[in-house]
Design brief:
The complex is a heterodimer.
Chain A: E1 4-7, E2 10-13, E3 19-25, E4 31-38, E5 42-49, E6 56-57, E7 64-66, E8 76-78, E9 87-94, E10 102-103, E11 107-111
Parallel strand pairs in A: 2-11
Antiparallel strand pairs in A: 1-3, 3-8, 4-5, 4-9, 5-6, 7-8, 9-10, 9-11
Chain B: E1 4-5, E2 11-14, E3 19-25, E4 32-38, E5 45-51, E6 54-58, E7 61-66, E8 71-76, E9 85-92, E10 101-102, E11 106-111
Parallel strand pairs in B: 2-11
Antiparallel strand pairs in B: 1-3, 3-8, 4-5, 4-9, 6-7, 7-8, 9-10, 9-11
The chains are: A mainly beta, B mainly beta.
């Protein structure tokens, strides 16, 4: 079982460029999440989606956008990247209760 | 003050030792308590999941919750080098969809 896949694995991006991080799950979970993980700050929620067609803002949403056109896919877009968005990004999914979350392998993004 | 406090370590122990990892929290609404394990350059994976106060045991791992003290622990018996990872505590409230709040993680190294 694949669980959650993320692409790309890593990326170096010039400041000001846009980028979409891809996330796909095969567990038919209703809820999906995007986190960033930074040293000393832990996991911080960027955006979430409780079900296809709906999205919500997390703790650090500025500079990021998401869409949820179907159950399986939850892409994260950086419209104009800045160096402070250098981080490791994790996609996760869960059932409707949200507590047991399953994480993808992460995308390491460096913005120069 | 953060809702969830966790010492980042690192914590180094000899193989075979009993390891105690801890978190404190301030939100009395938290009812569900989780421990995730994250190996280097990997996504977090759910290790233990408990509801309310009490103990839960799974092999060499025991999760303990003391709601009166707002304190949770994860004990690892007969620690192995393969237990070397970062351990994140996580918590959420009850009823419907609830946001999960993560600790920053404690890095554990088990030395052979």
């Amino acid at each position: 079982t694949a669980g959650i896949t993320q692409a790309p694995t890593s990326q170096i991006l010039a400041a000001g460029r846009s980028m979409t991080l891809r996330c796909t799950q095969d567990m038919r979970h209703n809820a999906m999440y995007w986190y960033r993980q930074d040293l000393g700050l832990g996991l911080r929620l960027i955006h979430y989606s409780n079900t296809a067609g709906t999205t919500g803002k997390g703790e650090v949403p500025d500079g990021y956008s998401v869409s949820r056109a179907n159950t399986d896919d939850f892409p994260l877009t950086l419209a104009s990247a800045v160096p402070s968005q250098t981080s490791v990004y994790f996609c996760a999914s869960s059932d409707s209760r949200g507590r047991e979350q399953f994480f993808g392998p992460g995308t390491r993004l460096t913005v120069l | 003050q953060k809702e969830v406090e966790q010492d980042p370590g690192p914590l180094s122990v000899p193989e075979g030792a009993i390891v105690s990892l801890n978190c404190t929290y301030s939100n009395s609404a938290f009812q569900y308590f989780m421990w995730y394990r994250q190996y280097s350059r990997k996504g977090p994976e759910l290790l233990m999941y408990t509801y309310s106060s009490g103990n839960k045991e799974d092999g060499r791992f025991t999760a303990q919750v003391d709601k009166s003290s707002k304190y949770i622990s994860l004990f690892i018996r007969d620690s192995q080098p393969s237990d070397s990872a970062t351990y994140l505590c996580a918590m959420s409230g009850s009823g419907g969809y609830q946001k999960v709040t993560f600790g920053i993680g404690t890095k554990l190294q088990v030395i052979p």
